[in-house]
Amino acid sequence: MVQKYESPVRVYKNPFELVMKAYEMRFPTCDMIPVVKETEIIGEEISEDGAIHVIDRRAKLSIDVPYLLKKIMGVDHLLFRQKNTLDKRGRTLEIDAWNESFCNRVVIKELCIYSVHPENPEWTCFEQKADLDIKSFFGFEGSAEKVAINEYSKNIAKSKDIMEYYINLLSEQGVTHVPIWSPPEGSQKKPENKEEPTVQESTVANGKEKALLRRKSSGIRGELEALHIEESSSSKLEQGYIQMYLGELTPMQESRLVQLKNRVSELLRGKVPSDPVFLRFLRAREFNVEKAREMLSQSLMWRKKHGVDKILNEYELPKVIKDFFPGGWHHSDKEGRPLFILRLGQMDVKGIIKSVGEEGITKLTLHICEEGLRLTEEAAHRLNKPISTWCLLLDLEGLNMRHLWRPGMKALLHIIEICEANYPETLGRVLIIRAPRVFPIMWTLVSPLIDETSREKFLFYGGNGYQESGGLVDYIPIEHIPDWLGGPKITDIPEGGLVPKSHYMPAEEFVKDQSPGPHFLEESYYHSTSLSRGQVHEGVIQIEERGTVITWDFDVLRHDVVFTVYRLRDKLPPIKSPGASASPSQKDSNFTFPEQKDTSVSSTSGTGAGTATTTGVGGNANVSAVKGTEMALDKVQDHKTCLDRTWKENLDYFKVENSIVCHDGESIQGSHVTSHPGTYVLQWKFFDKHHLGPSSVSPLDVIADSLSGTQHKAKIMYYYETLNSVDYRGSMTSLQSCQSGFSTISKISMGKQSSSGVSSAHSDKLHS
């Protein structure tokens, strides 16, 4: 594989002629370049008017290579040729170099050019390109390539210092000016019968003369295939600019940056990304030019497809985001990077997503990322220092199982995918404070999508550790620390809180959410069912390992329902519904949730310990079991319970989460940490207020229902899933401590039914 090097433009703030005089002081040898042991001039040509001067040198180099490799080579020195073509009229110096030793095994070509700065004639530019192609080298091709690259990189880093050393030495000797070359007096006379050549003709003639002299001086190698350096200066990168605005890079990293910019500029032939963008994509691909180019090309296509370049000008924050999204830009950190604060623990994830949908939350994220790019660029120019990333302060106080809401987590995972693919290396540091015990669950889900380099930028603080030495004060100026974190600064960032349901989009619209634009959820995870009086809908889950977490989320769209969680004494075999199979996403996920869109659902997630099989019961897949025998399917009945009438509570089945009445319009979330393997049943039941007794029902209601002959149907939109204990074994304590059971408090109790809205986290442990 051919290794290429292409330098940025190095600028000497000295005239070309003075730089040339300093350059000649390096020969025949230079103590600052110990690798060059000896040089000799083997050819020299000067044009008639003295404008073109070509010198052909042979250099003897001593390369620092491993002893074994040197013994195999059989030589102590390597021979190189260097041919310098100085054009005094055009004020350029071209240096062609190539290897003579092992030229059949290794091909090294180098081209360096000194020229006048295109915008300031008193300055001098230097550019360098090289190719290294090791075809064969005694079986040590890899080692030889590493040695060559290391030696070359060291010499590149020294070259500017060497040139400046000799310029300063000339100044000490009193030489601060060298006159520009002018033709001899005799050569200025033009023949009487010839017209004066045009500038173009003069340039062409000068080029032919220079090429002729170069050919004449290359007797051993023949005509050198010189490397080409673009003459256009519009897209060139200067080394000083890189160091000031992009940061310190190694010579090879600078070369990769130049190569990527040139390649993309050739392909686009129009508006190209800014230099910090090139550098970010290179860093994301470990400075592999081809991989970075492919990643950047895909990102540019994505930006064009979704109109991302217009989002800063056209996107307007929805009112619900302005009022309830607890995040915003807040000054900068101690390194001058823009600081974004997000109080994730105070964020109503479900409320915001249900209000703006996946489309809205995606646009909000893209707007934040685009604003971050703009702010970092402004900070770099304002402070005259390299700033290409921003800092994120993530406050997790209040984080609990509600934040693991399935659509919310899926949205977060897809947002991370978008950012990793299109905004790489934009986060310089992530400060995560007040992380509760439930956080490891979220981190387990999210961290695999974050590349290793980005994960190294995360700093975690549990409890009040962020207030101590090594905490926020080490990264954020104390005057910018928000008051709710113990600092003096009052922020205008919203406090978050529950989003009123008046902001919610209609349930059907939320399920479909097929508006145009970038989507990160291709399908709905919700299912819906309707229940008439006396009917139930059940989800049957087979738990294989103690500690598996069952979570649920549902909305009551019409009428009232009663929700209960049971555990059966005997394991119920899974229901085999025709055509029900796990989707690819389920097979690859630690979650299990209903697959089909109707009321009959069956899916399996995971293998081995901790797996759980979920089966929707109701519609076309109901179960009736017989007491006293191994649980088996008896018959399929619509909207009937799998709990046999002859069974006794606390003997044949156990109520592990107390019943709760959920009213029309309520949104319910909850979780249960299982203490036994076996069959668990999530049951939704039509709530019949007539069964509460005469004191609870108005006689007029009974008469009205009997006269109308109609019955109201309850409707729910739901999903449920399991978190495998094998993946979250270290977080069971946090799950037990933060179970919220239900998010809404019911005001009606039914016997043993809970009216507090809080699940009994330990009720399953009471029954063995």
TrEMBL record:
Low complexity: bias regions: 599-619
Origin superkingdom: Eukaryota
Any Pfam family matching the protein: PRELI
Domain PRELI/MSF1: 2-175
CDD domains per UniProt: SEC14 (cd00170)
Domain GOLD: 522-722
SUPFAM superfamilies: CRAL/TRIO domain (SSF52087), CRAL/TRIO N-terminal domain (SSF46938), Supernatant protein factor (SPF), C-terminal domain (SSF101576)
Record InterPro entries: CRAL-TRIO_dom (IPR001251), CRAL-TRIO_dom_sf (IPR036865), CRAL/TRIO_N_dom (IPR011074), CRAL/TRIO_N_dom_sf (IPR036273), GOLD_dom (IPR009038), GOLD_dom_sf (IPR036598), PRELI/MSF1_dom (IPR006797), SEC14/CRAL-TRIO_domain (IPR051064)
Residue intervals of the CRAL-TRIO domain: 317-493
GO cellular component: cytoplasm
Positions with biased composition (Basic and acidic residues): 187-197
Spans annotated as Disordered: 180-206, 574-619
Gene3D superfamilies, per the entry: CRAL-TRIO lipid binding domain (3.40.525.10), GOLD domain (2.60.120.680)
Composition bias, Polar residues: 580-593
PANTHER family: PROTEIN REAL-TIME, SEC14 RELATED PROTEIN
UniProt name for this protein: CRAL-TRIO domain-containing protein
Record lineage: Eukaryota, Metazoa, Ecdysozoa, Arthropoda, Crustacea
